[in-house]
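Hi R.,

Here's the chain you asked about this morning:
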Amino acid sequence: MGKIFDSAVAALDGLLFDGMTIVAGGFGLCGIPEKLIAAIHDSGVKDLTLVSNNAGVDGFGLGVLLESRQVKKVLASYVGENKEFERQYLAGELDLEFAPQGTLAERIRAGGAGIAGFYTRTGVGTKIAEGKEHKDFDGETYILERGIVADLAIVHAWQSDPYGNLVYRKTARNFNPNAATAGRVTVAEVEHLVDAGSLDPDGIHTPSVYVQRVVLGHDFEKRIEQRTVRQREAV
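And here is the predicted structure, written out as tokens:
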């Protein structure tokens, strides 16, 4: 069976259901699977649990799923750019689980590696540690964090060959490679499809064994949350 699909809608066909958990790659708005997110929005699937570095922004990224009230829970490390997220959370309409960024990355990686849990010192003595198992190693206290395995992983890659070997570009390598391993099914949207054998095997970031479906995207927005520039000095 071929892995290449004609559209994001086709690539997600048969995979979506109410109450599912979705892990999404991307760092802020960089390298997010924006076409797949839009297709999830249009599907109307609801009661989603989203696992991501961030919650998108108002009107873009995962933020569109919050605005349409398709999300019941978010597990993230940063949510500071989304007013609708803030409103829903403060109103008690949205469940939130915060995780330190490194811990979140490792929980996703661990799930993809088949590791049920791991101990870390990060969060000891804070609210992050409440309700979690504590254990001492070499005189230091650690807490148990669980690996994450999602029903679906959605990622954005720069290149893919027909088999689904993926290459990410620059900041998009944050979270996308880990996320790609942590779904029971992984769908990748890509900017370029290349011929089989054209990728350097040593340069492949996600091997094809992790990827079940691939869709070629077009006209990506690639927004920036906060554009900061300095004034040019007069010449």
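One quick note: The mean pLDDT is 95.

Cheers,
M.
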